[in-house]
Design a protein that fits this description.
The structure holds 2 protein chains of 2 kinds. By secondary structure, chain A is an all-alpha fold. Chain A has helices spanning 2-12, 23-35, 41-67, 81-106, 116-137, 163-196, 200-209, 217-250, 262-288, 297-327, 331-342, 346-358, 366-369, 372-399, 414-437, 443-447. The longest helix of chain A has 34 residues, at 163-196. Chain B folds into 2 domains: 2-52 and 135-177, Alpha-Beta Plaits (2-Layer Sandwich); 56-121, no CATH class. Classes of the chains: A mainly alpha, B alpha+beta.
C-alpha cells in the first residue's frame, strides 16, 4: 500500500525542480543571470529607487546625529518607539532564512535547495537593517561600542545581568554565523563563476573569493561536515536570538510584557514574517528571471503552509495573552487587555488581528496557496500585521502602565518614518545588488537534486 | 628526476557513477595518492579514495568548549572579581543570568571553528594549484568528473598509470604538469 500511496502523493505534488535539466543546463541557467544577462531598465529603476530610499535613511540618521533623539517621537513614558519596533521586525524577518538554510537542511527537506541562498542573503540584509536601530537608539551612537566588554580606562565592564546585554551577544553572534554560513555555501558556486566568467576582472574577483576551491572529494567531505555542523549550531542559535529579543520585554515588569508566552510566540512570529518576506522576494524573482522551473509551485505551497502553521501559533499567543489578562486577576494586566481593545490604539490592534489572524486563513484554500499573486498579497498583509504586532507590544504597554499620572501618547515623526522606510530601501538595494553579483540559487545544491546525481553502490 | 615534472595524470568522466566506480577500481588497484573532483558532493566518494579521518567535528567540539568557558569565565571575572557591582541586590556571581551569553559564545566559537577548521584542513585558500593547468578542469565546477593519480604515488609510472586509467574508459586523459 505504501508504494502505491507514495506514487499517488508524488503525482499530485509539484516537483522540486522541473524535469529535463542536466548539470550543465542548471549551471548555465543560474550563472547566466550573473555573468551574461545584461541589467535591464527595470533593474536600474528598482535599484535606483531603493538606493534613493537608502540615501533618505542616511539623511535621517545624519540629522539624528546632529540633533539627537529629540527629533523622534520617543518621549517618556514611551521611550522605545520606532527604533525597537523596527529592530524586532527586521530581526524576525531574518529568521526565516536561517530556518530554511539550517533547520530544513537538518530535516533533509531538499526543496530548500532552491531558495536557501537568497533566503540567507535576506537574513543577512535584514540583520544589517535591524542592527542599525539599537545602535542609533542609544542616544550617543558614537559610544555604542561601550556595549562590548573591552578593557577601558574607566575600568568598568558591561552589566551582564541585563537582557539588553544578552541581546548584544545574541544578535552579533547571529550576524556572524549567518554571514559565515552564507559565505561557505557560496564558495563552490564562486568557483563555478570563476571558471565560467570571461572578463578578467570577474575571473580575478570570483577567483579570489572562491579561495581556490577545486571540488576535491576530501574537501567536499570536510565541507559537508562543517556545513552540517554549522546548521546544527545555527538551529538553536536562531531560536535563542528571538527568545533573547523577547526577554528584552518579558524580563521587565511592564503589564503586557511580563509573560512566559513571549519566547515561543516571538519565535513563531519571526518565522511567520520571515516566510512572508521570502515569498514577497521569491515571487517576483522567479517571474522576472524565469526561474519558475527551480522555484516551483511546491516551494510556494510549502512556504504558505509554514506561514499557516506559524500564524496559528501566533494566534494562540494572542489568545493566551488575552486569557492571562483575565485569568491572572492582575488589574494592570486586565487593563492592558481592555486598553488594547478599546483604548486610543484600538484601531492598530484590530488591524493587527485582521492582518495576522483572519486574512491568512485563506491559505487553507489550495487554489490560493498555489497562486503567486494571492500569496504575494497575503505575505504583504502578514508583514504589515507583524509590524503592527511589535507596535502594539512596544507602544500600548508603555503608554499606560501603573500610574495614570504618567500616561502619555506616542506620535512618530517624519524622521521615524524616513528611517524606517529608508531601511526597507537599504534592504532592497542590497537584494538588487546580490541578484546581479552572486548566484541567487545555490548551483551545486541544485545539481544534487537531479536524477543523474544519484550514485548506486556496487 | 624527470618524474617531478609531472604532477599527476588525470582522467575525465561524464557521470558521477563513472567517477565513483573508477575511484573504487583505482584504489583497489593499489594506488594510494589519488584524488577525485566533482561539481557537487558525492556521498561515499571520499571513502572510495581512502579518506577516513575527518577532524572537523573535533575542531568544532574544541571550539565550542573554549567558547563556553570563555563566555562564562569572562562574565564571572568581570562581574564578581574585577569590578563587582551590586545590581538589584543580586549576588555578584549570579550564574543564571550568565547562561545566555555563555550559550551565545559557545555557538560563536564553535561556528567560527567549523569554518576556519574546515578551510585550514582543506588547505584553503590556495589560489594556485597544478590541476588548474589542465584546460578541461574548468568543467569540474560544472558537469564533469575528474580522477587524478599523483606522481608522488609509489606505484606511479607515467606510461603504466596512463594505461591503467585508460582501462577505466574515461572521456579523456591529461597529464598535469607541476
Amino acid at each position: 500500500m505504501d508504494e502505491q500511496y507514495k506514487t499517488t502523493v508524488e503525482a499530485q505534488q509539484a516537483p522540486v525542480i522541473e524535469p529535463g535539466y542536466t548539470f550543465g543546463t542548471v549551471t548555465e541557467k543560474i550563472s547566466a543571470i550573473v555573468l551574461t544577462r545584461p541589467a535591464s531598465n527595470g533593474w536600474f529603476l528598482g535599484f535606483g529607487i531603493a538606493f534613493m530610499m537608502t540615501m533618505m535613511m542616511l539623511y535621517a540618521i545624519g540629522y539624528l546625529f546632529l540633533k539627537g533623539v529629540g527629533i523622534w517621537g520617543v518621549t517618556i513614558p514611551i521611550g522605545w518607539g520606532f527604533a525597537i519596533i523596527n529592530f524586532v521586525w527586521w530581526i524576525g524577518i531574518g529568521h526565516a532564512g536561517t530556518l530554511i538554510s539550517a533547520i530544513l537542511l537538518l530535516l533533509r527537506q531538499s526543496w530548500r535547495n532552491s531558495i536557501n541562498r537568497f533566503a540567507e542573503a535576506m537574513t543577512l540584509f535584514a540583520v544589517a537593517c535591524a542592527g542599525i536601530f539599537p545602535a542609533i537608539h542609544v542616544g550617543r551612537p558614537w559610544l555604542a561600542y561601550w556595549l562590548f566588554p573591552y578593557p577601558n580606562t574607566m575600568r568598568v565592564w558591561p552589566q551582564f545581568r541585563s537582557p539588553l546585554m544578552w541581546d548584544v551577544f545574541a544578535v552579533s553572534t547571529y550576524a556572524t554565523i549567518s554571514a559565515l554560513f552564507w559565505f561557505i555555501g557560496l564558495v563552490p558556486d564562486l568557483a563555478t563563476l570563476r571558471d565560467r566568467a570571461t572578463h578578467p576582472a570577474a575571473r580575478l574577483i570570483y577567483g579570489a573569493l572562491s579561495l581556490g576551491w577545486r571540488g576535491s572529494a576530501r574537501h567536499w567531505h570536510r565541507y559537508e561536515t562543517a556545513y552540517l555542523l554549522l546548521a546544527g549550531l545555527a538551529t538553536p542559535l536562531v531560536l535563542s536570538v528571538h527568545t533573547v529579543v523577547s526577554f528584552d520585554f518579558a524580563v521587565g515588569i511592564v503589564p503586557g510584557w511580563h509573560t512566559t508566552i513571549f519566547p515561543p510566540y516571538f519565535v513563531a512570529g519571526a518565522i511567520y514574517s520571515g516566510f512572508a518576506m521570502v515569498l514577497m522576494l521569491a515571487i517576483p524573482i522567479r517571474k522576472i528571471y524565469g526561474l519558475e522551473d527551480f522555484i516551483t509551485e511546491l516551494h510556494l505551497q510549502n512556504a504558505a503552509k509554514v506561514m499557516l502553521a506559524t500564524g496559528l501559533i501566533v494566534a494562540y499567543g494572542y489568545g493566551i495573552e488575552a486569557f492571562m489578562g483575565w485569568y491572572s486577576g492582575d488589574r494592570y494586566d486586565a487593563f492592558t487587555l481592555w486598553n488594547r481593545l478599546h483604548g486610543p490604539y484600538a484601531i492598530p490592534y484590530w488591524a493587527l488581528l485582521i492582518c495576522n489572524i483572519f486574512i491568512p486563513q485563506v491559505l487553507w484554500i489550495r487554489k490560493l496557496r498555489t497562486s503567486p499573486i494571492a500569496l504575494f498579497f497575503v505575505s504583504g498583509v502578514i508583514l504589515v500585521g507583524m509590524w503592527l504586532e511589535r507596535f502594539i507590544i512596544v507602544v500600548v504597554s508603555l503608554h499606560r502602565d501603573f500610574l495614570t499620572s504618567s500616561w502619555g501618547m506616542y506620535y512618530p515623526t517624519r524622521w521615524d518614518w524616513m528611517t524606517y522606510i529608508g531601511t526597507i530601501g537599504m534592504f532592497l538595494a542590497a537584494m538588487f545588488l546580490f541578484l546581479r553579483l552572486l548566484p541567487a540559487i545555490s548551483i551545486f545544491e541544485m545539481r544534487t537534486l537531479l536524477p543523474e546525481a544519484e550514485v548506486k553502490a556496487e | 628526476m624527470k618524474r617531478d615534472l609531472i604532477y599527476g595524470i588525470m582522467a575525465e568522466f561524464a557521470s558521477a557513477q563513472a567517477l565513483v566506480d573508477a575511484a573504487k577500481r583505482t584504489h583497489e588497484a593499489g594506488y594510494q595518492k589519488i584524488d577525485a573532483y566533482s561539481p557537487f558532493p558525492i556521498e561515499g566518494l571520499a571513502e572510495e579514495i581512502g579518506f577516513h579521518r575527518d577532524e572537523v567535528p573535533l575542531v568544532v567540539l574544541i571550539g565550542g568548549i573554549v567558547g563556553g568557558l570563555t563566555g562564562y569565565l569572562m562574565q564571572y571575572w568581570m562581574s564578581a572579581v574585577d569590578y563587582p557591582l551590586n545590581i538589584g541586590g543580586k549576588p555578584p556571581h549570579s550564574w543564571p543570568a550568565f547562561i545566555v551569553i555563555t550559550f551565545e559564545m559557545t555557538i560563536l566559537f564553535a561556528g567560527v571553528s567549523a569554518v576556519l577548521g574546515m578551510l585550514a584542513l582543506n588547505g584553503l585558500p590556495m589560489p594556485y594549484h597544478p590541476v588548474f593547468n589542465v584546460p578541461r578542469f574548468a568543467l569540474a565546477s560544472k558537469d564533469r568528473f575528474f580522477l587524478i593519480v599523483f606522481s608522488s604515488d609509489p606505484k606511479f609510472n607515467p606510461a603504466g598509470t596512463r594505461g591503467f586509467l585508460e582501462s577505466l574508459a574515461p572521456r579523456s586523459i591529461s597529464e598535469v604538469p607541476s
